[in-house]
Amino acid sequence: MVDLDKPLETDVLVVGGGIGGLMAAISAAGLGARVIVAEKANTRRSGNGAMGNDHFLCYIPEVHGQDIEGIVNESMEGLIGKFQDRNLIQRHMEESFARVKDWDSWGIPMKVGGGWEFTGHAFPGRPRVWLKYAGANQKPVLTREALKRGVVIMNRLCVTELLTRNGKISGALGINTSDLTPRMTVFRAKTVVLATGHTGRLYPSITPGWMFNVARCPSCVGAGRAVAYRAGAKLVNMELADAHAGLRYFARSGKGTWIGVLRDLNGRAVGPFVNKPNRELGDITADIWTSLFTDMARSGRGPVYMDCTQTSDEDIEYMKWGLSHEGNTATLEYMKKEGIDLKKHMIEFGQYETIYRGRGGVEINEQAETSLPGLYATGEELGNFWGGIGGAATFGWIAGANAARRAGQLDFINVEEDPAVEEKRRFYAEITERRSGPGWKEANLAVQQVMKDYAGIEVRSETLLQAGLKYLRDIRKKVYSQIRADDPHTLMRCLEVVDLIDLGEVVFLTAMERKETRGLHRRSDYTFTNPLLDGKFMTIRKEDGQPVIEWRAQIK
Predict the structure, then answer these.
(1) In what order do the strands lie in the sheet with 242-247?
(2) Cβ neighbours of residue 153 under 8 Å, at least 6 residues apart?
């Protein structure tokens, strides 16, 4: 059997120790709450900001002036996109400068050259909203600040289920992977903050079979979305996928850090925004034209290259500095080793795996609370707001503060008496006690193949979606009855596959419901974008074991 640890009590349980999770923990602990962070890896280098970042979405009055409305509008026209509730972007912008100053005072350098500098992801002649900063050590710094405030960090602990009582959060279950044998931890938690990141490994990477060659943390698999959905919270925009871009095959984030022009093989700029390298702007084409690389290949004009051959020596060094803080040290080392000279060689760019971030996630309100009382969420967990690192920081702060205030009004519940505890314990034990059967990699690859072929961003249709949903449910039956794990680590990976299957099912159901083409949701049987669905968001929740789909208006 899987050993059961003594229940732990905490006012606020933070699930995930990335940027949003650590900021939630710091905020809640600052208000006197007892806080535990459960992180499946190690908070010093975990999550999508593990190795750094160099852009922070924010509004700074002394730079932008008093027109915050214009800055909000600018955000929704660029990388952030329109699939957000505008009131959440407004709330982020109002609080973002306070978080910038916090980070700077804690030791994360937020000024470049002594001042506030905004570069990249920008339109010509328009306000720039991405603050350049030096984020290479942001995770160690935030970990230190959390510990300084008395936060208990439990590394190598993966939360697998949320527990509820009378329709409200009452606790959670987790698997501790720090020993040779698996142990289950039960949390009596008055409130919970979800911060587990995007939906990696739901679709194949740019190098299929090499699942961890992805632009973001490969252990961020949308677990927070899955546990929230199973507990009854609403997910929103799950049919509206996203895809990042960057160095082809060498999957890394940071396309806004490159100072060059996206061109075809004949040297023609593929976008209308820049014709020569511009340090302040970058080339925003791939942010706006999300299907750029696929469309160019189909048109006969592909591939697409990042051309830095006309970039000044000073800007090349500035770009390399930014890439190092973005976590692209391996990229820089590879180019040096292989003799790749950016002044001589164009670098091919391409589109990466399909993900859900800032669309296709947990729905929150301005207090960062979900539709399930006592459950909060932040970061790339969300489906109606995305602001990158900056957004995770601000709404992490908001989520932590509101979770702490609510916790102060509640008593603990003896959740270990919940029948779900023993049910899950038996299930986990079955997986570890099987002597034969497929492992997590085989199951994960099968899920990825079905998602790509039947709910991919190339084409979707009613018949494809119906067939794919059937196949995915077949995989679920095999996973529940056959999958096996050799140790606590592979047990964690098996449970990640369970989460991915649940999320895949949600994608199929919502993609069938949206009978139009919009963004990267392309229906071959509904090829037009229906104006009657402009500003319409779709939510899905589970009630009495069945999915419930509803439509609502985008919040302005």
Answers:
(1) 242-247, 347-355, 304-307, 261-263
(2) 17, 36, 37, 39, 43, 143, 146, 147
Q: Which of 305, 294, 323, 284 is nearest to 80 (CA)?
A: 284
Give the pLDDT band (50/70/90) at residue 397: very high
Summary mean pLDDT of the chain: 96
C-alpha to C-alpha distance for 280 and 285, rounded to whole angstroms: 14
Cα–Cα distance for residue pair 23/401, rounded to 1 Å: 10
Half-sphere exposure of 112 (CA within 13 A, CB side): 18
3-state SS string for 515-554: CCCECCECECCECCCCHHHCCEEEEEEEECCEEEEEEEEC
Cα distances (Å, whole numbers) of residue 539 to 88, 293, 360, 503: 17, 30, 9, 13
User: Residue 459 has which token pair?
Assistant: 């084409």
Torsions phi, psi for 355 (to 5 deg): -140, 170
> Interhelix angle for 419-433 vs 488-513, to 10°?
110
Structure tokens belonging to residue 186: 């039960």
Cα–Cα distance for residue pair 361/552, rounded to 1 Å:
15
**CA-atom Rg of the chain in angstroms:** 23
Longest CA pairwise span in the chain (Å): 68
**Encoded tokens for 271:** 């976008």
CA distance 519 to 305: 23
Overall size of the chain counted in residues: 556
**pLDDT tens digits for 157-208?**
999 999 999 999 999 999 999 999 999 999 999 999 999 999 999 999 999 9
pLDDT of residue 414: 96
**Which helix H or strand E contains 340, and what residues bound it?**
none
Q: What is the DSSP letter of 309?
A: T
Query: For residue 389, what are the contacts with CB-CB under 8 A and spacing of at least 6?
Result: 19, 49, 53, 55, 56, 57, 135, 138
Assess contact for 230 and 161: CB atoms under 8 A. Answer: yes
Distance CA 196, CA 210 (A): 22
Helical axes 440-455 vs 488-513, angle rounded to 10°: 10
Look up tokens 């979707």; give the residue. Answer: 460
- 522-550 per-position pLDDT tens digit: 999 999 999 999 999 999 999 999 999 99
**Closest by alpha carbon to 538, among 240, 290, 241, 243?**
240
What does the H/E/C string look like for 70-94?
HHHHHHHHCCCCCCCCHHHHHHHHH
- pLDDT for residue 87 is more than 90: yes
What are the strands, taking DSSP E only, across 40-147?
55-57, 130-132
Tokens of 300: 């006969």
Is residue 237 within 8 A of residue 382, CB to CB? The reply is no
The torsion angles phi and psi of 81, rounded to 5 degrees, stand at 85, 175
Between CA 160 and CA 169, with CA 165 as vertex, the angle to 5 degrees is 55
Pair 505, 450: CB distance under 8 Å: no
pLDDT one-digit tens code per residue, 359-375: 899 999 999 999 999 99
Local confidence band at 79 (pLDDT 50, 70, 90 cut-offs): confident
Nearest residue to 162 (alpha-carbon basis) of 371, 400, 380, 386: 371
Is residue 345 within 8 A of residue 163, CB to CB? The reply is no
Tokens of 423: 């049910």
